[in-house]
Amino acid sequence: MYKRNILITGGAGFIGSHVVRLFVNKYPEYRIVNLDKLTYAGNLANLRDVEDKPNYRFVKMDICDFEGVMHLMEEEHIDGIIHLAAESHVDRSIKDPFTFARTNVMGTLTLLQSAKLYWESRQEKFEGKLFYHISTDEVYGALDLTHPEGVKPPFSTRASSDHHEAYGEEFFLESTKYNPHSPYSASKASSDHFVRAYHDTYGMPTIVTNCSNNYGPYQFPEKLIPLFINNIRHRKPLPVYGKGENVRDWLFVEDHARAIDVIFHRGKVAETYNIGGFNEWKNIDIVRTLIRTVDRLLGRTEDEDMNLITYVTDRLGHDMRYAIDSRKLQAELGWEPSLQFEEGIEKTVRWYLDHEAWMDNVTSGDYQRYYEDMYKGR
Ligand code: NAD
Ligand code: TYD
Hints:
seven-stranded parallel beta sheet, 13 helices, globular, binds nicotinamide-adenine-dinucleotide
């Protein structure tokens, strides 16, 4: 008998694997069931250190498989769901939006409906249950660089009210109207609306969180940071979209996992929380930092790989700037990011350089073909 039986979807992916690891290790009194289809982005090697734990079970399944999901919930007496499974890469969504609608919209709806039917069939109904949906800040659209003083990344990783006074109008708040631009963010926005609709219509206990860009170990090397670390290591070109002026707000993945833990346990039902560390960077500044860090750790001459920077055709509909205001989460639940960006980047670069086998494993086969196709004509 476990105290809680929690279903984590997408647990073999980047963020999901950190959440599964945290919950399995921190809560031996909980049963953790990881449901993942193992797409190109899911990798059980991300979870080797927890796979033999008695409170952990992996199930290979598609979240769109209604009967399979229903059966699993009944079999495992699921009372909490942390939903991370998704197609997550903007560039892929531009090429193949249908897969994003299928998994992110229909898959989320399938999970919601299964949870509703299963929980309603129990005597205690929705009592003690929670459907926690993990989403992105990209649903809010894009900010521009209109502050009179201009954006000066990096900002402090410690949120302060002074900071907010100065830049207050320039952040995504929980109340910011949804305005997604990419097929990825449109599909996530749609799934967020479905989650809230299940609360408002059926009374299902739900929470939605919207987080900024994550970085850290186990991220699939299609996203900026791991892709570029790997390319610098192999001295391959670094395809910077447009002028490299776009700004993203970066959070270390373990800080996101800690926020999910706090919100799962103490978040208020029906609320939305923004998660971010007030840590904005222009892409080109990140790229230069990555080059310097990799070169230093590999004992190369300073800046010798700067010539790998290659400006390529911009991403279609490329959002200019994302910046999250997470003061609600910080004030109400006491969460704050633990790492400064410089520390986080150092840790991340070291991890990828030390885990060559992981990188080689995920970058073989299909990955090669995908990238040849992706950069054709750029
Ligand atoms: P990821 O692409 O690394 O992992 C996604 C996981 O979902 C993979 O393990 C994959 O196998 C699984 N999956 C995909 N389709 C599935 C399906 N139909 N059925 C079952 N499993 C399926 O993604 P990530 O970066 O870890 O993101 C996880 C979640 O967090 C996503 O919902 C994403 O929108 C959200 N998010 C990500 C970021 C970020 O910076 N990466 C930021 C904010 C929010
Ligand atoms: P990415 O990691 O794909 O995250 P997202 O698009 O969800 O923010 O991209 C981060 C930023 O880096 C984004 O502005 C696009 C840019 N980028 C490049 O310039 N080159 C690349 O090869 C990639 C993958 C991203």
